[in-house]
Design brief:
homodimer; 240 residues; Rossmann fold; 5-stranded parallel β-sheet; 5 strands
Chain lengths: 240, 240
């Protein structure tokens, strides 16, 4: 095991969406060598993994791990349980009214834990995750207080944290950006958003529905940024 | 998703070792309905999963999930990397000298995160894990401060924690017991230690080596308790 700190290495969580593609570009622009990890967890929008591959390939990561774990074993989310429907055409008020059924129990905790384990074997102490607390979906594990608690845990949970106390850094460069700002900054860094995928309920060949929460947030972001989303959509709700 | 609290339900991590078998019996004796989870993570002592099955069957859990995730993707531990050897015949001084090569990066964080996700879908807020900080192996993620940090994280990470703040409880009934005390208390609760498995480097048909750290701790525990281990061993270091 490489236990010396490799200060340029960072593990970046890459879902294939526009947030994580921008996060990856930001990690590179800050001088990190990115090691990317994506999770095949039984999500119905498994097409996003193709997007993750394309995004990682386009920017040239050191290594891209596709990690499998089947969260369908538990269900409890519209993203992993085929008996639950992905909400469509929700109004802004509905979207702001609480934690939605697309919440996957413990997802970011599980993903960050696995990323931390990999980082430790790489001698890295830096994790990047594209969570966002502004134009976000109401998920509890996207909030700054969650990230701070995870960082505290990392320093107690690992050999690396014990031997070099307080070394772990969880980078959340998008946490206080609006979706429009993310899109603008990603564009400046050269992110090709045409490679990304955001839809929770894609149709054949991964075509985005345009009306799930994730599509709506994305489309509103491009509209607010005064830009056009390069993706094609099956249908589009009129965005205010 | 069942979001009402099911106060009798608890998720218990069951490795198949004597500690987790005793923890499971303790959860039951405290009135919990146990939901057991075991992890097939690419461990070289995969034989322990057979023991986990036997233990869960013997006490009658509500459900036993065998969760697969391949930590060999990263390596970095003698338990998951076939290029690293499991230490044998280490003296007490060597065992106390630091975090050993059998440490699996982030293991308990990953396992507790997944258990937490399952518990949330069950409407449960109670997790049981058989970590031990006395006769332990020097792993950072077996210490009380790690458990406290994980509990703080759970209350921020989950929908259940947000909606019923401070509800998560991580039970560690073994944390301040010696191995001998664990064996005595397990025996009182009727645990059949002949069903369990502790060896890190078992031979054919799962026969325990008798000389890895885990076997040594186990054998010393039985000796200190004035009892005989029902398991057979390939060889045994003389225990003081």
């Amino acid at each position: 095991m490489v236990m010396s700190a490799n200060q340029n290495r960072a593990v970046v969580l890459v879902s294939g969406g526009l947030d994580s593609a921008t996060t990856l570009a930001m990690a590179q622009s800050q001088g990190f060598e990115p090691y990317a990890i994506s999770f095949d967890y039984g999500q119905r929008h498994r097409f996003e993994l193709e997007a993750a591959r394309r995004v990682c390939k386009s920017v040239g990561v050191q290594r891209h791990v596709m990690f499998s774990l089947d969260l369908r074993a538990f269900g409890g989310s519209a993203l992993t349980d085929v008996d639950l429907s992905v909400p469509k055409q929700r109004t802004d008020e509905e979207m702001e009214a609480g934690i939605p059924i697309t919440y996957v129990p413990a997802r970011n905790t599980i993903f960050l834990s696995i990323a931390m384990g990999w980082a430790e074997t790489l001698g890295a102490f830096d994790l990047f995750i594209g969570v966002n607390a502004i134009d976000y979906s109401g998920y509890p594990d996207c909030r700054p207080e969650f990230i701070t608690a995870f960082m505290n845990l990392a320093n107690l949970a690992t050999k690396a944290g014990v031997e070099a106390a307080g070394s772990w850094r969880i980078h959340t460069p998008l946490i206080s950006l609006s979706k429009a700002e993310i899109i603008r900054q990603g564009t400046e860094l050269g992110v090709d958003f045409g490679l990304t995928h955001s839809c929770y309920d894609p149709g054949v060949e991964g075509v985005s529905c345009g009306v799930c929460d994730s599509c709506q947030l994305r489309l509103k972001g491009f509209a607010d940024a005064g830009m056009t989303d390069p993706l094609h959509y099956a249908s589009e709700r009129t965005v205010d």
